[in-house]
Amino acid sequence: MELTTQRFKFKRLFLMILFVVLLPSVAKELLIQIYHLEFKNQLWYDILGSATMLLFSTPIFIYLFRKTDKTALTLQNQLVENKEIHQKLTLSNIELDYNANHDFLTGLQNRYRLFSVLNKLTAERSELAILFIDLDRFKSINDTMGHLSGDKFIKLVSIRLKQAIPVGAQVFRHGGDEFVILSELENSRAVKIAESILEAFKEPFEVNNTLLYTSASIGISHLPEHGSDSVTLLKNADRAMYRAKELGGNTFKVFSQLAENDDQKQLMIENDLRKALETEQLLIHYQPVINLATGRLKSFEALVRWNHPKIGLVPPGEFIPVAERSGLINDIGTWVLESSCHQVKQWHSANENLGLAVNVSIRQFRDPQFPSFVKDVLESTQFPPHLLILEITESMMQDDLESVRIIEEIRTLGVKLAIDDFGTGYSSLSKLGFLPIDYLKIDRSFTMEMLTHKPMQSIVQTIIDMGRNLDMELIAEGIEEEGQSTLLAQCGCQFGQGYLFSKPLPSEEIERTYCLSTLLKVK
Ligand code: C2E
Ligand code: MG
Ligand code: MG
User: Fold this and answer.
1) What spacing in Å lies between the alpha carbon of 191 and ligand 3's midpoint?
2) What predicted TM-score, i.e. pTM, was given to this entire model?
3) Roughly how many angstroms between the first and final C-alpha of the chain, as a whole number?
4) pLDDT confidence band for 456 (50 / 70 / 90)
5) Does the structure show a pLDDT above 90 at 304?
6) For a substitution probing ligand 1, which of 286, 289, 303 has the most ligand atoms within 8 Å of its CB?
7) Which protein residues are within 6 Å of ligand 1, measured from CB?
8) Is 520 left (phi over 0), alpha (psi -120 to 50) or beta?
């Protein structure tokens, strides 16, 4: 539409120009034809022609000038407008870019920016330290004070972090209560930075007139030792941070591949251990406890074993700590207690005085339901309570009321208690007199040395005397030689167990080795 109007205008203009050009000759003709006015001199016609042309062309020129002027002005305005639009666009681009790279709450560079900076630095630099920071107990601040206060707190934390780091390091908000610091200084300075951050957090943060305290767990990874790309470096700093958290927080840890490998092995054991219970890979070996004076069998200690389908027999020392950490120990302990009570109850048909010792882990022991669980097992297996000995360690008889309550409840059932590995843990002798303990088990480390190292003999003698004075019976562990057995008996130790008498054996072998029908005398 616009184009047609434009074309029409041009046509009109062209006709007008044509008209103006032809006008002088038309004017001449008109003078001659209409007014019969003829000049002798051609000059007058020329003057008349030029005047007519000038007269008619002037408005055209004025029109053209005006038109050109208007177009020029429009163009000029358009240019100014374009420039303004361009400026606005550039500004909003800068704003968009800033928002995309910065955290809205703290104004710190965000996670997206972290990756781009980290990618660039890992490609350019030969040394770089990454500090992964996670606040300890931030969730409780958020939960108790509300999210708005939590936001204010995070803001203050970010300011303090910026103040705590040196020139050459920059801080990013990774998300939530996690921050990352990239230090381009020498890697050895990373530890110093971590220390100054921990120091800076010792001062409280004031949010809504309330003083809030926090600490941080910091993981450190280094380029090039702990990875060459940003993903690995950040992941490893994060792993190290978890390690710091596991230590209780308010500390830092430098990434260690060795610790990681250990963790992976533990994780593998933990996963396999879950299956082990379901697929009956666990079994119990029984080690006889002998009366050192008579040589007769007193009881068996139940010792759990794991027959791993690929690795073979795994000793408890390797999987019990994993089971304790993962909580699986409760299921394992339940199974050991039930199975061994059931087994030894069957052997009671040959010797009704046969005792059974079962190891109890600290996690089982701390379970408030533990005494009632023991009661249930005794009832369901019909096992006589006085023949059951639960072996606990020195660390379990701490001075807390809960341990004392559990010990007393177990004793009310009629079950006996032994302190295992006595002398190796931190026992408070003052507690020993107040707790209803029936047996002290002298640790293998004493038995092993008592023949070769005279002072050790005195220590063993002291333990035995102390136990006897407290009305406890003594069981020596790890007896491997005849001499040890004789000396222990001379020192007053009543019972003993060890390879000299027998290794821990599976139940079928126990049944084969010991003639159950003849009151289970030692071979
Ligand atoms: P513990 O209760 O002190 O058991 C004695 C350990 O010494 C057993 O190791 C036994 O095989 C070993 N031993 C016995 N006599 C000798 C000897 O003459 N020489 C040597 N070198 N060793 C001897 P094991 O079976 O490897 O058990 C290690 C530890 O694992 C146990 O120490 C106990 O603390 C724990 N444990 C075993 N079974 C269980 C269980 O069912 N539950 C819990 N919580 N812990 C268990
Ligand atoms: Mg034991
Ligand atoms: Mg022991």
Assistant:
1) 41
2) 0.64
3) 119
4) very high
5) yes
6) 303
7) 287, 303-304, 315-317, 320, 333, 336, 359-361, 391, 420-421, 444, 477-480, 497-499, 504
8) left
